[in-house]
Amino acid sequence: MTTQSAAPGSRQARKERTRRAILDAALDLLVDEGFASLSLRRLTKEVGIVPTAFYRHFSTLDELGLALVDESFATLRAMIREVRRDAPPPDELIDASVDVLCAQLDAHPTHFRFIARERYGGVPVVRDAIARELDGIERELATDLAGMPGLERWGPTDLAVLAGLFVDLMVAAAAELVSTEAGHPDVRAAIELTLRRQARMVVVGAAGWEPLAP
Questions:
Q1: Total Cβ atoms within 10 A of residue 64
Q2: How many Cα atoms within 13 Å fall on the side-chain side of residue 186?
Q3: Are 177 and 192 a contacting pair, CB within 8 Å?
Q4: What angle do helix axes 109-118 and 124-146 make, rounded to 10 degrees?
Q5: CA nearest 109: which of 47, 192, 179?
């Protein structure tokens, strides 16, 4: 039996639809501007609500920014889980990561564009939230790397550096792949090929690395 709160015409359902519309409109507007430039008046006009109605869903624009960070990283975490699920060997991990990244970019381009742009954006609360999320991803990746052949002797510091290199590489590539210029198939193919080469260079360098003393 459907409860009143879940009914399509209920107040809660309408509130959820409006909240979703605000998030979607913000992501659309942020295609061409940074979060620091986002105007409440323009955003609410895009959604079709009065500015005061915004505060029924978010107490501030910063709170909206944090919601966008949470949603965007839910997409990124899903991508990482998919890559880690089968625990591929290092020689397959690169291609698997790039393939999944490209598939997720096609499905959620605005999320990745938001992360790439706001990582160094002008709103501290959003920038710090992105940094915390990326740090968490790097720690998880470092744990995975510790169990890979050839990396057993590596200490936490070196593993963290390697994980950071991979995360930086993927985020930078994502920013390129969701750019306007990457819409052309030849341009996209070139970016993907460069990413695979860069990732392999990181792996080759890691294979020859002698862990430093703590």
A1: 22
A2: 0
A3: yes
A4: 110
A5: 179
- Nearest Cα neighbor of 43 from 57, 58, 34, 54 is 54
Give the pLDDT of residue 2. 42
Query: How many residues can be counted in the chain?
Result: 214
CA 189 – CA 195 distance, rounded (Å): 10
Give the separation between CA 68 and CA 113, rounded to whole angstroms: 11
3-state class (DSSP) for residue 91:
helix
Distance of CA 6 to the CA centre of its chain: 30
Name the pTM for this structure.
0.84
Per-residue pLDDT of the chain (214 residues; tens, 9 = 90+): 344 445 556 888 999 999 999 999 999 999 888 999 999 999 999 999 999 999 999 999 999 999 999 999 987 787 777 776 766 666 677 788 888 888 888 888 899 889 988 999 889 999 999 999 999 989 988 888 888 877 888 899 999 999 899 889 888 888 888 875 656 788 888 888 998 899 888 888 887 888 776 5
Name the CA dihedral angle for 22, 17, 116, 79, rounded to a multiple of 10 degrees.
180
**Which amino acid would we find at residue 91?**
D
Residue 184, classified by CB atoms within 10 Å of its CB into exposed (0-12), middle (13-18) or buried (19+), is exposed
Compute the distance between CA of residue 177 and CA of residue 171 in angstroms, rounded to an integer. 10
